[in-house]
Amino acid sequence: SIHDAIRVFYPGQDKPDLTTFPSKINFQLNDTHPVIGIPELMRVLMDEYGYDWNTAWGITTKTFNYTCHTLLPEALEVWPAKLIGELLPRHLEIIQGISEQFRNELRGKGVAEDQVERMRIATDADENGEGAVVRMAYLATYGGSYVNGVAELHSELLKDVTLKDFSSVYPDKFKNVTN
Fold it and tell me: Looking at CB atoms within 10 Å, which of 43, 48, 157, 171 has the fewest?
């Protein structure tokens, strides 16, 4: 866990300088199941250690990397925002802040509004008019240093198909790192 990593790398320190955290550890998000770690690190940094949003975000994005295992856009995990809000309300608040920051960043880069909407991390409603959702792969892509597939061809298909909108804006995030 994040608290374990802080305890191991900053033993006996009540208020460690966590700006050095990414130089000590990186968390590999092996698919979307552990992506909730992104808002959790933000929460720990801001709520428990007093870092401001921008500093916490800088630390967070240097700490996580994402391996995407699926090529089918419809197979990418989406979590109901209502469920996240019921179980982890602070995490949902942080995710919504990340999503809004991301949309503003995209607009600042001159990305067309239809592409900005396609890339939303937190939506108002899903395609069926159901409740709001959080697109975990999108959160992982934006919230980490880099994205890779499980093989070279897979990595290329991620860039060219599955996460094409992201690779068009952030081409340097996409790497091919395999065992």
Answer: 171
